[in-house]
Write a structure and sequence with these properties.
single chain, about 290 residues, alpha+beta, Ribosomal Protein S5, domain 2, Alpha-Beta Plaits, seven-stranded mixed beta sheet, four-stranded antiparallel beta sheet, about 30% helix, globular, disordered N terminus
């Protein structure tokens, strides 16, 4: 459905979420895994528009739209329904998603879209960004949606309910996805942690003076999901090798449960050169240079 010409749509960016580190600190009795993750956001992402006044719905465009289903379990619509349960008389409308990020790729594409939808509904309804109902709807939609709701660097803990914003120096980054979807549940199953397991708590930084401090922290804070993801998706070894071969690379790691990997550089120019190098060698991969912060 197309909105009437006199209806002004609202628009929000849905930036990619990057887990710079991801420690699994245990598994709750309810089956959820507790995490501690240093999260950053990229300069690239999807775009979501809201056409007020129409019936709740979702249209999709963009190069990755074909990989998603609009009904009934799209996270944008789920988030809208969760918020409507908490805000009587919530005004809504029809969303239009410009889908550019790979699907099921560990960079929070669906979660970022859902969070953008919540921000749009908050703007439409005059709901403050710190209204607890927004956070509650985000967490009910998915574990990564609360951090994407804020879309700023922070330490995320628990199953996503603990968020501590911090200052993070900017890095140039190359993001690479080999076109293989990774099921998050399968990666967590491979950890084989029984419910009720408690592991040693991970270090939680309060901030960083410079890029060197970030890299020093990350040297001792890996992504615990990377080994099982590599075992499930062996092409990640090839992606990692391709990024490690780029000049001026400072760190190569997987984000989330995969299969997107990222490489950090001191500036965007080095990241752009690296992305061109990888894309030239692997034209069938999704490759994007960006800024993280």
């Amino acid at each position: 459905m197309i909105a009437p010409a006199d209806t002004a749509p609202l628009s929000e960016r849905a930036p990619a979420k990057i887990n710079l580190s991801l420690r699994v600190t245990g598994r709750r009795a309810d089956g959820y895994h507790d995490l501690a993750s240093l999260v950053a956001f990229a300069g690239t992402g999807d775009r979501l528009a809201l056409f007020p006044g129409e019936a709740l719905g979702l249209d999709m465009t963009g190069p990755r739209a074909g990989a998603l289903a609009a009904e009934p379990d799209n996270l944008v619509l789920k988030a809208a329904r969760e918020l409507a349960e908490r805000v009587p008389g919530l005004a809504a409308g029809r969303f239009r998603l410009d889908k550019r990020l790979p699907v099921a790729s560990g960079i929070g594409g669906g979660s970022a879209d859902a969070a953008a939808g919540l921000r749009l509904l908050a703007r439409l309804n005059g709901i403050a960004r710190d209204d607890p109902r927004l956070f509650e709807a985000a967490l009910a939609t998915g574990s990564d949606v609360p951090v994407c709701l804020y879309s700023r660097a922070c330490v995320m803990t628990g199953r996503g309910e603990g968020l501590a914003p911090l200052t993070l120096p900017r890095f140039g980054a190359a993001l690479v996805n080999p076109g293989v979807a990774v099921a998050t549940a399968a990666v967590f199953r491979a950890l084989a942690l029984p419910p009720g397991t408690r592991l040693t708590d991970a270090a939680r930084p309060g901030g960083f003076a410079d890029r060197r401090a970030v890299l020093d922290f990350l040297a001792g804070a890996p992504n615990d999901l990377q080994p099982p993801a590599h075992a499930l998706v062996p092409v990640l070894d090839t992606v990692e090798a391709a990024l490690r071969a780029t000049p001026e690379v400072r760190l190569v790691r997987m984000s989330g449960s995969g299969a997107t990997m990222f490489a950090l550089y001191d500036d965007c120019r080095a990241a752009a050169r690296a992305a061109k190098m990888v894309a030239r060698l692997h034209p069938d991969w999704w490759v994007k240079s960006t800024i993280l912060g």
